[in-house]
């Protein structure tokens, strides 16, 4: 074996170094990457990470259902529509038992409500007698005569009061009018009974013998829209107040005096 020269050895080392350098660099890079990874301990595998459960969606409450309560008027309007439909349906289908039965049920329902209302009114009238019509106005025949007698006495007292205050009666008429001719004797009798001064005023120049004192309105001083007419006249103040137009009974005329005296504030119904 021949001895190797120093130069030959150096050249060989240099070539080996050049060839080995890339491998060395790759090894260093791999080691650096491996060193930066977190240590895995003695286990050679990565533990499986627990999967996070998706967040539970909050349970949504159902939307509030708003109940609309119909007013009393709306309820009655609905019932009237329902009843009218049932009535019309049964009328045009007279042999349909189901439709006529529905109508009968609705009528019975109405009868029941009417009866309940009547009984409630009876109860309330006893608890609140001030709202009773019959308390002051009896409906029984035995009591009505007494009731009307009381009204007449009150009205007669009113007439006497008006006479004392100077009120008299004008009877405006047309002598050719048949209705005025029929009314004249009754008016004069009324004046005699209650001692009222009565003056008959003719608009057409023809007077009635049934009236004790007549005058003819030649100047048109007394103006009325219709005849026959009755007016209260005050001899002191010359005031005139309309009392009645057309034919009127003595009973109603007596009531009119009371209406005028009380300015229609005291009901006589």
From TrEMBL:
Entry keyword set: Signal
Residue runs in coiled coils: none
Signal peptide, first to last residue: 1-35
InterPro entries: TraF, TraF/TrbB
Keyword Nucleus found: no
Name of a matching Pfam family: TraF
Superkingdom assignment: Bacteria
NCBIfam families cross-referenced by the UniProt entry: TraF
Record's protein name: Type-F conjugative transfer system pilin assembly protein TraF
Species of the source: Vibrio qingdaonensis
């Amino acid at each position: 074996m021949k001895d190797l020269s120093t130069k030959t050895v150096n050249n060989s080392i240099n070539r080996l170094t050049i060839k080995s350098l890339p491998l060395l660099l790759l090894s260093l890079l791999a080691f650096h990457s491996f060193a930066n990874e977190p240590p895995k301990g003695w286990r050679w595998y990565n533990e499986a990470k627990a999967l996070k459960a998706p967040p539970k969606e909050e349970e949504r409450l159902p939307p509030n259902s708003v109940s609309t309560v119909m007013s009393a008027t709306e309820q009655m309007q609905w019932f009237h529509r329902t009843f009218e439909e049932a009535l019309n349906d049964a009328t045009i289908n007279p042999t349909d038992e189901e439709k006529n039965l529905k109508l009968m049920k609705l009528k019975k329902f109405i009868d029941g409500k009417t009866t309940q209302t009547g009984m409630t009114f009876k109860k309330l009238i006893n608890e609140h007698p001030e709202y009773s019509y019959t308390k002051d106005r009896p409906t029984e025949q035995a009591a009505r005569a007494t009731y009307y007698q009381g009204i007449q006495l009150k009205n007669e007292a009113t007439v006497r009061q008006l006479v004392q205050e100077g009120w008299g009666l004008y009877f405006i008429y047309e002598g050719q009018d048949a209705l005025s001719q029929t009314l004249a004797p009754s008016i004069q009798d009324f004046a005699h009974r209650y001692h009222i001064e009565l003056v008959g005023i003719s608009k057409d120049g023809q007077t009635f013998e049934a009236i004790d004192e007549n005058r003819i309105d030649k100047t048109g001083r007394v103006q009325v829209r219709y005849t026959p007419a009755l007016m209260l006249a005050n001899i002191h103040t010359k005031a005139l107040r309309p009392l009645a137009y057309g034919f009127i009974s003595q009973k109603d005329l007596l009531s009119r005096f009371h209406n005028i005296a009380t300015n229609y504030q005291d009901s006589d119904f």
